[in-house]
């Protein structure tokens, strides 16, 4: 069964400051397969946001196979001229979403720099859009929606 996965990236807080001068310029990115950078879809960068940032952006992953794709990978990075710096990451078990009524879930998730080293948290809404449907109900759905 192929479905879509709708992820609203609300905000992150308590992020580590990775800038030498100034404040973090963070963006978030999500993927069902974290093998390459091309697998990720991202939010816009928020210049000088620092340790707390709000995106309120929705990304729709057009092909979600719940029987084989079990984890949503989330990273928060600091935009740089050359190589962006990883601020923190997490992996979210999608069984949390699949087992809820309506297959829609809003939650606060810990972010890590290294396994066991908490470096902030991120608030996401995640919903499965069944095959043949065009949208899923999410709490506080923002106007900015991008399908990838």
The largest sheet is: 5 strands, mixed
Taking strands numbered 1, 2, ... along the chain, how are they ordered across the largest sheet? 7-8-1-4-9
Helix content: under 10%
Number of domains: 1
Mean pLDDT: 88
The count of helical stretches stands at 1
Organism: Linnemannia gamsii
Pfam families: C2
Domain C2: 1-107
Protein name: C2 domain-containing protein
Q: What does this 3D model show about the protein?
A:
- The chain has 148 residues and is mainly β.
- The protein has one domain: C2 domain (Immunoglobulin-like).
- It has one helix spanning 95-98; strands at residues 3-13, 26-31, 41-42, 53-64, 71-78, 85-93, 104-114, 117-129, 145-147.
- Strand 5 and strand 6 (85-93) form a beta hairpin.
- The protein is elongated.
Topology:
Elements: E1 3-13, E2 26-31, E3 41-42, E4 53-64, E5 71-78, E6 85-93, H1 95-98, E7 104-114, E8 117-129, E9 145-147
């Amino acid at each position: 069964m192929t479905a879509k996965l709708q992820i609203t990236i609300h905000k992150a807080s308590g992020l580590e400051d990775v800038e030498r001068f100034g404040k973090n310029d963070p963006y978030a990115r999500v993927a069902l397969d974290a093998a390459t950078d091309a697998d990720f879809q991202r939010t816009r960068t928020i210049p000088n946001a620092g340790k707390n940032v709000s995106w309120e952006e929705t990304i729709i992953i057009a092909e979600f196979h719940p029987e084989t794709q079990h984890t949503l990978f989330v990273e928060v990075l600091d935009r740089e001229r050359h190589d962006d710096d990883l601020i923190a990451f997490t992996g979210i078990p999608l069984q949390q979403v699949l087992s809820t009524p309506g297959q829609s879930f809003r939650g606060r998730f810990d972010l890590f720099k290294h396994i066991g080293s908490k470096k902030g948290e991120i608030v996401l809404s995640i919903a499965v859009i069944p095959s043949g449907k065009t949208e899923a109900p999410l709490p506080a759905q923002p106007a900015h929606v991008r399908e990838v």
